[in-house]
Amino acid sequence: MRIQVLAIVSSLLFLFYIGALIIKGKLREEYAIMWIVCTLVLVLFSFWRDGLAIVSKLFGVFSPPNMVFIGAIFAILIYLLHLSVVVSKLQEHTKTLAQEIALLKQKEEKKNA
Amino acid sequence: MPRIAAIVPAYNEEESIASVVNELHSVSVQNNLDIVIVVVNDCSNDSTWNLVLSLPCVAINLPVNLGIGGAVQTGFKHALQNGFDFAIQIDGDGQHPAEELPKLILAQQRNGWNITIGSRFIDKTGFQSSTLRRTGINYFKHLIRLLVNVTITDSTSGFRMIDRKALQLVCDYYPDEYPEPEAIILYRKNNLSMGEVAVNMRQRQGGISSIGGRASIYYMFKVTLSILFTFIKTNSKKQAR
Lengths: 113, 241
Prior knowledge:
Chain A is mainly α. Helix content of chain A is 89%, strand content 0%. Chain A is elongated. The relative contact order of chain A is 0.06. Chain B contains eight helices and seven strands. Chain B is globular, with a radius of gyration of 17 Å. Chain B has a seven-stranded mixed sheet, with helices on both faces. The chains are: A mainly alpha, B alpha/beta. The A-B interface holds A 94-95, 98-99, 101-103, 105-106, 110 and B 40, 58-64, 66, 70, 73-74, 77-78, 81, 176.
C-alpha cells in the first residue's frame, strides 16, 4: 500500500513538473508528448495495481517486474535514438549557419574595404 | 583563362600558413595564372587569423570549428557563389608544394576531367608517407575500385582540382571528417570523370596531423563505413528518381 502511494505521488509530481517546463517554454511540445505519455502510463499502473500482472500475462512475460524493465529499457533506447537524430540535424544546421555567416562577413568586409 | 580558387583550410597553422600563401601567390604570378587564394580559418586558437589578414588572399573566418570538411566546403561555396571555374584544395600545413599546381592545371586542360587528383604514388617521388599509411591507402584503392570501378592510387590526397559540376555537388553535401576518399565515391556516382596526375608532396611543415596512432584505426573504420554508406545512399537516390 505504502509503495502504491509513493508511486502515485512521484508520477503525478513528474507530470506536473513536465507541465511547468512546457509553460515556462523550456521544453518544446513535440518532445513533451513523449514524456507525458510515459508518465501517464506510470500513473495508470500505480492506480491499477493488478494491471501489471494482467498485461504481463498478455505478453507472456513470466514475472511482472521483468515486464516493467523491458518496457522501460525499450522506451529509453528509442528515445535516445530519437535524440541522436535531433542532435545530428542540429549539427547540420549549425554548420550551414556558420558557413553562411563566415561568407557574409567576408562579403561585408570586402564592401567596406 | 579559367578562374581558379585555391582553397586553403587552416586550423592552427601559424607556422606554415604565411609561406603556403606566399608560395601560391608567387607561383600564380610566375605562371600567369588567374588564381585567387581563399584561406578558410577554421576557428584557430593561435595567431593564424591575424597572419591571414595581412596575406594576399581572400580571408574567411569561421565562427565555430567545423572540422576539415566543413572548412573546405566553405571555400567551395565561396568559389561557386563567386563564379569561379575551378577550385583547388591545398592543405594549410605545407604538404602540397605550390610549384606542383601547374601540373594539376595542365592535366585538367589536357584531359578535360571534372576532378583532377594529385597523387604521390604514380611516380613514387617526394615524401611517401609511412608504410602503415600506404597500406591503408592501398586498401582504399581496392575498395574504391571494387565499388565504382576507378583506380585512384592516392585517394586520401586533398590536393585536387574540381570543376563547377563537382563544385555544385560538394556544396550540397561534403563529409565533415576525412572527406577525401568518400568524395571520390560521390563524384563517380554522379557520373563525373576523374583522373590522377603525379605530384610530389612534402612532409607537413608545421602543426600535427589529424590522423595518427589510435586515431588511425578510427580513421580506417569511419572512412570504410562512410564510403559504403555513400555508395548505398546514392544508389537508392537514383532508383527513386
